[in-house]
Design brief:
The chain is mainly β. It is 0% helix and 40% strand. The protein has a four-stranded antiparallel β-sheet with strand order 3-4-5-6, with no helix packed on it. Strands 7-8-9-10 form a four-stranded antiparallel β-sheet, with no helix packed on it. Strands 11-12-13 form a three-stranded antiparallel β-sheet, with no helix packed on it. The protein is globular and about 45 Å long. It starts with a strand and ends in a 13-residue tail after the last strand. The C terminus is likely disordered.
């Protein structure tokens, strides 16, 4: 986005990239800024990984596909959680299961199924589409929060404290 000089923002296309299964749609994009990666949820197919920097060598080349199995049907909203340890997790909504699938982003092996599924987090939001999260302390949410858009009007908000039972401590 650039300011055109009159105070109006204008978008400039930088690049087009990515594969698509043709099955449904690319439902979500998430960026791991620390590693410079983009993750695309190709609904009913899997998750695709690319370089975020359009100037990187082979920037449009798909690096991997993962999350190809185990979802009830739709790979939906996604969000990257940077942990204090420096590692990151990718959470992807399994829309029909009422769960978030959690992938450890430090386990890249170079194989087609490159990131290891480390768990599932059950949520009460139904038919979850978009999600976003932060582990930054916020008023009323000292451990951060996750927000999910569900099929009912409005948003579902979950304190990051709710994740402490999970073996991969999200906010550590």
């Amino acid at each position: 986005l650039i300011d055109d000089g009159s105070g109006t923002l204008r978008g400039i296309k930088v690049r087009a990239f990515g594969n698509w299964s043709g099955l449904k749609e690319i439902e979500a994009l998430s960026v791991d800024a620390a590693s410079g990666l983009v993750f695309a949820s190709d609904e009913t197919y899997g998750i695709r990984e690319y370089r975020a920097d359009p100037a990187a060598e082979n920037a449009d080349e798909e690096l991997s596909e993962f999350g190809l199995t185990g979802f009830v049907r739709d790979q939906e909203g996604s969000a990257v959680l940077q942990r204090a340890s420096g590692s990151a997790l990718l959470l992807v909504s399994d829309q029909q299961a009422g769960e978030l699938r959690v992938f450890d982003l430090k386990t890249r092996s170079g194989a087609k199924e490159s990131y290891r599924l480390v768990g599932r987090v059950r949520i009460t939001a139904k038919e979850t589409d978009g999600i976003d999260l932060t582990s930054t302390p916020l008023p009323g949410f000292p451990n951060g929060l996750l927000v999910a858009l569900a099929n009912a009007p409005g948003f579902f908000v979950l304190s990051a404290r709710s994740f402490v039972h999970y073996p991969v401590a999200f906010c550590q």
